[in-house]
Every structure is written in structure tokens, then in C-alpha cells.
Amino acid sequence: MKETKLKAIDFFCSGGGMSFGMKQAGIKIIAGVDFDPDCKKTYETNLKGSKYILADVSLMKTEDLSKETGIKKNDDDLILIGCSPCQYWTIIRTTKNKSEKSKDLLHEFHRFVKYYNPGYVVVENVPGILKKTKESGLDRFVSDLEKRGYAVHYEVVNMNEYGVPETRKRFSLIATRLSNEAPFPKPDYSCPTVADFIGKNNGFPKIPAGHDDGTGFLHSSAALSENNLKRLAMTPKNGGSRHAWAKSSLQLKTYKRNGDGSFSDTYGRMSWDKPAPTITTKFPSVSNGRFAHPEENRGISLREGATLQTFPKSYKFFGNSNRAIARMIGNAVPPLYAKKLAKAIIESHGGR
């Protein structure tokens, strides 16, 4: 691990995916900031020595961060990271009124960037933020960085090309005022698949739907109704879809009414030899995407979802419910990708 003086504060840190990956690369994580109390124990357990600041960033004064962490303005070794909740800008059809509060969080993060003027800025979000750059504040954010002397690089990446076993496409930005060119990791095009990360050969014994692990490993799967168990039994293994039972009595009324082509991945199985779909906050539910196990009649377990997100098996998750833990996992930046972002910054920072 290359020695570095770099240190970071992770806004909207959730359960710590970005922070953990950055720490693995050698960057000191001073603190994570989030308003979700469910994430505190998970974050502080896995990131020993890093502080979890329970706060709503939109209500937080910029100078309060210095009081909490001791950071100073114009620190060349400081990285400010902003991975704000992004449901409002997602291209997936969702109810926007539930995520209305999250749409201005880039603007709130921008306040802290302007105030502290760090050496580096990192942003990760959904690709949809590029569809409405004015409304999301991205135009203003990038323009202001450039006016203040930052080199800015951003693009939409497919994380499968960076070693994450998902077809996870995300907007990633790195900016620096220390160089004429912003660092950014190059893909290795390793493109791993589901079989590289889960399955019996990878330490995941066969379990039924509704299995409660009862240990910190969390190889727990959601319960399924009798009809859903029948549907999965009829769904071909290794990538099968719900079209296998479309003409049976098990067909759902919504697909009869709206057409069988809508939401075609729901109730589908993952394929062993392909990357998983994007692991979302609702990945334990087979009705919310292609989240069924490739061959067992169940949805993937909490730990399988975390592993596909590249969390190590030793990573401990805590929450008031399995739903809260799934939300942490689905919201996370995959630690492996975060580590590669960090390595690019460390390489650029050199011996400073």
C-alpha cells in the first residue's frame, strides 16, 4: 500500500462502501456524514477510528464540519466526497415525490466544497443526473469548480469493467486544483460474473426462501408466498424469466393488463455466466428485478447482495430490519470501485 497523507470526509456515507474502499487504498477516513441513524453502528464498526456524524447536510452549517473534525480550508491533502441519495434523478421509473428532498443534495454538498476548497472532490451518482444537468445543479457545480481552478473529469462508467460483478452504470466525477488534469481510474475490463462471487464454491450453502441465518454472516433470504415459490419452480435455472409461466394460471394480473413485455426482469433469475443486474435497495425481493438466485427457488440473500457489491464477507451490517440492511447495501458505492478511485487520486497526489 502506497503511503499517503490524503484524508477524506464522506458525505451521505450510508453504511460506508465508499469510505471502506478509500481506506483499503490507504486514505485516512476522518468522518462520514449521514442523517440515517440505522447506518451509524455499521459505519463505525467497519471503519474503526472514523467518526459518524449524524446530521442532515441541508441543515448543517459549513463551519460545523471543522468543529466536528478539525479540518481546515485550502488543505491540499483533503478529499471531500459526495455520493448523495439519487432516487430523484434515476432513469428507473419511480415515484418522485418520495425522493423530492434528495434532489438538491448536490447543491448542499457544493456549499462545503466552496467553503473548504479541498485538494480533491469526488462525486458518485446515477447516470440520470446528466439528463437534467441544470435542474440537478451539476452544471453549476462543475462550472464553479472550473472557475476556481479545478481540473474536472466525469463520465458514466460501467462498474463491471472495473471488477464489480454487476451491470452497474454510474456517474463518477473527480476534480482537483493541484493538477491540470484530473485523475481517473482506467477500466481493466475484467468483467466478472455472478459465478465468480456467489454460489457454493464461494462459501454460500444452499438455503430455502425465508431462511433466517441468525448470525452476522446474514445469509438470509426473504420469505416467498406459495404462488411465488411455484413461479420460481417454473422459471428456468441460470437466467430464466417469468415468460416461462406467462400463459399459466400463475400469470399476474398486472402483466395481463399492461402487457407481458413490461418490467421483463421482474421474477427473473440471475445467470451464472453474466454479471448481476444493478443491486438496488430492494434486491431481496424477486418482484423488484432479476434478483432470483440462478438455481435455488429464492431471492438472493443479504450477504450475497453485499458480496456482489464487493463488500468483503467480514463486513458487518447492523440495522433495525433486513429491509434497512438491504437499503444500506443497495445504496452503497461498491468498495472495490471506490478503492480504484482512491488509487488514481493517490497516484496523482504523488509525494505531496
Give an overview of the whole structure.
The protein is of the alpha/beta class and 352 residues long. The chain has two domains: 7-190 and 333-349, Rossmann fold; 198-309, Alpha-Beta Complex (DNA Methylase, Chain A, domain 2), CATH 3.90.120. It is 29% helix and 12% strand. It has a seven-stranded mixed sheet, sandwiched between helices. α1 (17-25) crosses α12 (335-349). The model is unreliable at 88-99 (pLDDT under 50).
Short description:
This protein is an alpha/beta fold.
Strand order of the largest sheet: 3-2-1-4-5-7-6
Radius of gyration: 21 Å
Based on secondary structure, the structural category is alpha/beta
Would you count the extended β strands for me?
7
Tell me the helix content.
Answer: 25-40%
What percent of residues are in strands? 5-15%
Main CATH class of the largest domain = Alpha Beta
Mean pLDDT: 93
Largest sheet: 7 strands, mixed
CATH architecture of the largest domain: 3-Layer(aba) Sandwich
- N-to-C order of helices and strands: EHEHEHEHHEHHEEHHHHH
Distance between the termini: 16 Å
CATH topology of the largest domain: Rossmann fold
Write down the domain tally.
Answer: 2
Count of runs of 4 or more consecutive helical residues: 12
Unreliable stretches (pLDDT < 50, length at least 5) are: 88-99
Question: Any idea what the CATH superfamily of the largest domain is called?
Answer: Vaccinia Virus protein VP39
- Principal-axes shape call: elongated
